[in-house]
Amino acid sequence: MYSVIATDLDGTLLNSDHQLDPFTAETVRTLDARGVPIVIATGRHYRDVAGIRDVLGVDAYLITSNGARVHAPGDERIYSRDLDPAAVRRLVQPELAGGEGRVIVNLFADDAWLIDRHAPELLVFHQDSGFKYEVMDLREHDGMNIAKVLYIGEPADLKETAANLEREFGDALYVTYSLPDCLEVMTADVSKGRALRFVLDRLKVDPSQCVAFGDNMNDIDLLETAGHPFMMNNANPDLITRLPNVPRVGNNFEAGVAHQLRKLFDIRDELASPGQAPD
């Protein structure tokens, strides 16, 4: 029995342009109209995801910053976990970020995306929501009310960053990759899976009735929590190795989530995604 749908965004529900395609949007709207609760679980900022949800046109629970924030339909914040301010002030230091200045440092505050330099190439990820960053000297931030620190850079540079974090903080932080060039840092008691359990408890739904979709390392706990997990065919190879028994579905650029949902919930009509026949 499938009672709740939880899904990641980038590499999963969104296409290769980091946008919603019409076939996926129509599929999710059909399920929302049937009364199936939708949970979006992502590393993105709440304000960004709220914009994507509005484009999608459904009432959804929003798990953002990898589980550091949860908002109910209607935008009430119902769950929040912040990094320790002292840790934040340390995490923005150039010697910890590493990469000889090449790594871009970001802070996710309650209502703002703060960044240490202009990086207009990042805005392509936010076309649906229109969410934009604010540039500031992050070393001047007091570290308060920060859900996530995000490092963006080449994988080799981020490997150095991760080593710096491990050396200084050990297991006191939750450090994970959302993309090969995105290293994300939250407080140790944060994960998508923990946040999903919080939502399921609120809905009075057992995890065994939850369907979940993901594609990267920050989805491990999400997929382990849901009773019916599915991994994208385009998933990170390390995730495939970590969760070898999770079945794989189609690619995100072929509306793989939508096609799988149509099979699970027996949605049959003439609407089809480009290049594919109707289910």
From TrEMBL:
The reply to whether Metal-binding figures as a keyword in the UniProt entry is yes
Record's keyword terms, sorted: Hydrolase, Magnesium, Metal-binding
Q: Which cofactor does it need?
A: Mg(2+)
InterPro entries on file? Cof, HAD-like_sf, HAD-SF_hydro_IIB, HAD_sf
Q: Which GO terms describe its molecular function?
A: metal ion binding; phosphatase activity
Which NCBIfam families does the record match to this protein?
Cof-subfamily (TIGR00099), HAD-SF-IIB (TIGR01484)
Q: Which family does it belong to?
A: Belongs to the HAD-like hydrolase superfamily. Cof family.
Q: From the Swiss-Prot or TrEMBL record, give the protein name.
A: Cof-like hydrolase
Q: Can you name the source organism?
A: Caballeronia insecticola
Organismal lineage: Bacteria, Pseudomonadati, Pseudomonadota, Betaproteobacteria, Burkholderiales
